[in-house]
Write a structure and sequence with these properties.
With 298 residues, this protein is α/β, with parallel strands linked by helices. The protein is built from twelve helices and ten strands.
Length: 298
């Protein structure tokens, strides 16, 4: 059984391992990585069958939302569903995705694709505080919530913006990058949790693949790969697989509610569950990893 925790003030009970559905984007006829559309359904049902109860997606993840609606909407009561809205980087030079019209269109299309009348968490997607102020995005989020289209409001963000978003007091959840290779948000995760904000971690297991080198290239590019190679963390515990070390390090943070890992592989789902059930790393090893990575960053 996977461990669960209460996602901050939302009161939602989520498994400590979630599923990041970004990996389901693309199908074979569009030149994507999925072998076929049906495989998306196999993966999603395997996720739920394994006991994972938290699925994270986004309006902009191509057909990810469509697959969720098509293949597991009939199991809607079995999972906490989070999606994202507010987009500007896709043919949107004026950032109109943060506007009232843009955000309303986004959530309405998401609900149609997901085949549900509400999501549990609607997250702003990588906005800046200036984006939010310019387009009055907070009031739009409150309107969407008042209409019953989302139960709670969240944001996917990073430093330094997260500091100001914490001060706003509106967000029920934060989605934040964190891993042994990206420890910069360690303290802010703690502070968010102490404020009653649910903490969702992305990038904590290098996208759910045991091939760390390949995953690092896709997760955050050269930064993560260079840090891994320079820090030589494997030498600290050569008996531990690199993917296991990454996931268990992230799990060691006491203020994290759920770590989302995306994959198209049924084998990786099983491996991730097996690893996270082992719990966090030994306290001494966590300290050594932190010291080694800090020396690389500095």
């Amino acid at each position: 059984m996977l461990k669960t925790s209460i996602l901050g003030r939302t009161g939602l009970e989520v498994t400590n391992l979630g599923f990041g559905a970004m990996e389901l984007k693309g199908v074979v006829e569009d030149g994507g990585r999925l072998p076929n559309e049906e495989h998306a359904g196999v993966v999603l049902n395997a996720v739920l069958d394994s006991g994972i109860n938290f699925i994270d997606t986004s309006w902009c993840y191509d057909r990810s939302e469509e697959f969720i609606g098509r293949f597991v909407s009939h199991r809607r009561e079995e999972y906490v569903l989070a999606t994202k809205c507010g987009h500007w980087w896709r043919n949107d030079p004026d950032h109109s995705g943060w506007s009232h019209e843009g955000m309303m269109n986004s959530i309405n299309q998401s609900l149609e694709r997901l085949k549900t009348d509400h999501v549990d968490i609607l997250q702003l997607h990588n906005s800046t505080p200036d984006d939010v102020r310019t387009h009055d995005s907070i009031n739009t989020l409150k309107e969407i919530q008042a209409q019953g289209k989302t139960r709670f409001i969240g944001i996917s963000t990073v430093l330094p913006y997260i500091e100001e978003f914490m001060e706003m007091g509106i967000f029920d959840t934060f989605q934040i990058p964190y891993s042994a290779m990206e420890p910069e948000h360690e303290d802010v995760i703690r502070r968010a949790a102490e404020m009653g904000i649910g903490t969702i971690i992305r990038g904590g297991v290098a996208l759910g693949t045991p091939d760390l080198e390949g995953a690092a290239k896709r997760q955050t590019g050269p930064k993560v790969k260079d840090r891994w190679e320079t820090a030589d963390l494997s030498s600290l515990a050569p008996e531990i697989d690199p993917m296991e070390m990454m996931l268990r390090f992230t799990t060691s943070h006491p203020h994290i509610n759920s770590i989302i890992a995306g994959t198209q592989s049924l084998e990786h789902i099983t491996e991730n569950i097996s690893v996270i059930q082992k719990g966090g790393l030994d306290t001494d090893l966590v300290r050594k990893i932190k010291d080694r990575v800090a020396s690389v960053i500095d």
